[in-house]
Amino acid sequence: MNTSEPDTLSGTYFTADNPDGSYGSGQVVRLAAPGVYLVRYEGTEVTLPLELVSLDEMLEATSEGFKVWRFFDTIEDREKWMEWLDAPSKPRVISLVRPTNEPE
């Protein structure tokens, strides 16, 4: 492994969007090889506790230009993002009737 390659992702927490609209979360464990990271996904549905993910995969974007992977320095920051993401949106009421000025 090339030790001169900067490793800024090890220890960070992430969310990764899935094509079905759901997302996975976990932590980047360490650099495994140049451009490849060992990550640990959270949850009981995961059969393997660790997975190799390339930097190219982590930099992918959707067709709308949104990043698939999001990185957070702390688990608290990631949890705040997940709470916001999972919160139901509040409907806004917009009046389509223009108020009239009635003569006094």
Describe, in plain words, how this protein is organized in 3D:
The chain has 104 residues and is an alpha+beta fold. The protein has 2 helices and 5 strands; from the N terminus they run E-E-E-E-H-E-H. It has helices spanning 55-58, 75-86; strands at residues 13-17, 23-33, 36-41, 51-54, 69-72. It has a 5-stranded antiparallel β-sheet with strand order 4-3-2-1-5. The longest helix has 12 residues, at 75-86. The mean pLDDT is 84.
Q: What is the percent of helical residues?
A: 10-25%
Query: How many DSSP helices?
Result: 2
The assigned structural class equals alpha+beta
* Amino- and carboxy-terminal Cα gap: 83 Å
Radius of gyration computed on alpha carbons: 21 Å
Q: What pattern of helices and strands is seen along the backbone? A: EEEEHEH
Low-confidence stretches: none
Provide the β-strand percentage band.
Answer: 25-35%
The beta-strand count equals 5
Tell the overall outline: elongated
Q: Largest beta sheet, briefly?
A: 5 strands, antiparallel
Average pLDDT metric:
84
Q: Provide the spatial order of strands within the biggest beta sheet.
A: 4-3-2-1-5
Features:
104 residues, alpha+beta, five-stranded antiparallel β-sheet, 15% helix
In short:
With 104 residues, this protein is of the alpha+beta class. The chain has helices spanning 55-58, 75-86; strands at residues 13-17, 23-33, 36-41, 51-54, 69-72. The protein contains 2 helices and 5 strands.
Please describe the topology of this protein:
Elements: E1 13-17, E2 23-33, E3 36-41, E4 51-54, H1 55-58, E5 69-72, H2 75-86
Antiparallel strand pairs: 1-2, 1-5, 2-3, 3-4
